[in-house]
Amino acid sequence: MRALLLIDIQNDFLPDGALAVPEGDQIIPVVNKLQEEFNLVVATQDWHPPQHKSFASNHAGKNVFETIDLHGLEQVLWPDHCIQETEGANFTKDLKANKIEAIFRKGTNPEIDSYSGFYDNGHLKSTGLADYLRGKQVTQLYLVGLAGDYCVYFSAKDAIQEGFEVFLIEDAIRSLSADDFKKVKEDITSMGGKVIQSGSILKTKNTN
Ligand code: VGL
Ligand code: ZN
């Protein structure tokens, strides 16, 4: 069984959002088309309380994109983003959502960031996503979404460690840094994951 995992396709990560990923909007039509090819679609949602410690605004004198030590982990300080129950945290209206069977929220603990959809950055607490997928007999996991160099990357690494066969669908992913995503692809490939294009999935059924 294969599943499509939509990572953080939220307003704040799209152009004009608080933490905009360049060209993030370009993945939406691709993701919508891809969803038709999967019997199971699951999504993650970055879901921070306003006092989240990953926000530069919660550290006096610190600027966005500076790094600090947060309880022993290196932490990039982000602009306020994906605050619970705000429009920025919503999935974009252009994203088809009718096939999304479950949504796994992350980043809710103000003391630790959570890039991966599976675990927080300290690997202390599970979201339950891996067990959910195993419960659905999923063995192959296809990842799309934002941002390729953060939440997609960390989700892919955890997915591989959890024993899933992992595919990054490159043209349905955009990154904060396109350069960093090159390293992500190398790393994921070295761990046994695969980098593919949406065409290799869409062509199996569609003629366009
Ligand atoms: C993300 C930075 C902070 C992401 C989330 O979804 O890639 N990046 N929070
Ligand atoms: Zn975040």
TrEMBL record:
SUPFAM superfamilies: Isochorismatase-like hydrolases. GO terms for molecular function: nicotinamidase activity. It holds the Pfam family Isochorismatase. It is an enzyme of class 3 (hydrolase). Pathway: Cofactor biosynthesis; nicotinate biosynthesis; nicotinate from nicotinamide: step 1/1. Its EC number is 3.5.1.19. Residues 3-198 form the Isochorismatase-like domain. It comes from the Bacteria. Keywords: Hydrolase, Metal-binding, Pyridine nucleotide biosynthesis. Belongs to the isochorismatase family. This is nicotinamidase. It comes from Pontibacter silvestris.
